[in-house]
Amino acid sequence: MKVIVMGCGRIGSQVSQLLAENGHDVTVIDHDANADGRLGPSFKGIIIKGLGFDRDILIKAGIEKVDAFVAASQSDNANIVAARIVRNIFHVPRVVARLYDPRRAEIYQRLGLTTISSSNWGAVRICQVLTHTEIDVWDTFGRGEVSLVRIDTPPLLVGRNVMNLNVPGEVMVVSITRNDEAFIPASGTEFQEGDLIYLAVLSSSMERLEELFGLERR
Q: Which of 97, 135, 148, 151 sits a CA distance of 20 to 30 A from 173?
């Protein structure tokens, strides 16, 4: 996956390092010429000096060919401006904006932007949002230890029941929406084609969930 990360502060540098370590093609944009010092000599990505909401800088960074964009600068306003430009003009499919003021999160979510506002777990959470692309994370609890996710029932699960998906202490089916009506399933409820499944999942068990669904990470 090709990713551009705008901002190389604490969160931006961690996200960049985590993605690069997992084999993704990472380009970092930062206005500080010394940003590479925060990434260390082992970082294998590209670093470009400039502003992440500057159209020419974005094009230089390869915005027209990337799969994802992370706005992780120290300015909420700059992050949102960049995220909207990247999403609305360059049509990047996955865009995440780092917010310092969580009170703004609801406003930006109405604009269709995914936002992360907790510095304690932001880097790991951003990587989850980008790399677990077929799993839609709706909400998180605590400091991100538990996620509420939803997913369309894959062919692998049609005809199987809820107990085949529940993993004690890791994964639990909490609701199914079928024919536009939601209900809380019993352990013997069978999944049907077209079901929308909601699950509570330990964030550390995302890969386990993908295995259960027969999904592959990007």
A: 97
